[in-house]
Specification:
Radius of gyration: 18 Å
Order of helices and strands: HEHEHHEHEEHHHH
Number of helices: 9
Number of strands: 5
Shape: globular
Strand content: 5-15%
Distance between the termini: 31 Å
Helix content: 40-55%
Structural class: alpha/beta
Length: 214
Amino acid sequence: AADLRGSQAIEDYALNVLGVAARDALILGEGDERRLALLHAQQVLGLRRDVQYIDLRLLSYPWYVAQQRRLFPRFDYQPQPGQVDVLGLIRRSLGAGRPVYLASSNSPSLRSALARYPVGPLERLLPPGQPPPTLETLLATQQRLAGAAVRRGRDPDPALDPWSAGLREPWAWTWLRLARALSATGHHDSAQRARAAARGWAPWLVDSLPARAP
């Protein structure tokens, strides 16, 4: 049970993220599992090198910012001693027309300050004043992306392989958010199907939630 050689969830996550991201996208996230998964996919497998992944926890290190500026000259972040201006980076990037996504963040203030909508395992951030897609569009997009997603090997066991399990959960959360929106608009059968789809990605997560969550 502890033999993880059959698990490909971490690489699958990177392949799916790169499959979802728009051209020249900026993706912001936290955690070694996300950063190293994307690094492997881009630098070893040679995939989607137009996409830039930024680990928010490393933005306080000048060497990391300098490295990213060498790889992506349009990345205009300037580190300030004792301060990480993620909101400024996001607003400048959106203002320049660059697609920006959030892969993960533990900052409640960051999440509350940004208009966003789920897409696959990511959240796309909206420029000021731009409305999100309709629920019908979001549902159709999620169905298309999930149908094309890479999901190889056995399901991860969160007790033995929490990194892999954690990278399955963003798909489930997107389905759960859609289920909540569908239920709120009276589409109860579609909401049940969305919740079942969430369970297919991360049963340990869905089974731990109340029936009406999130």
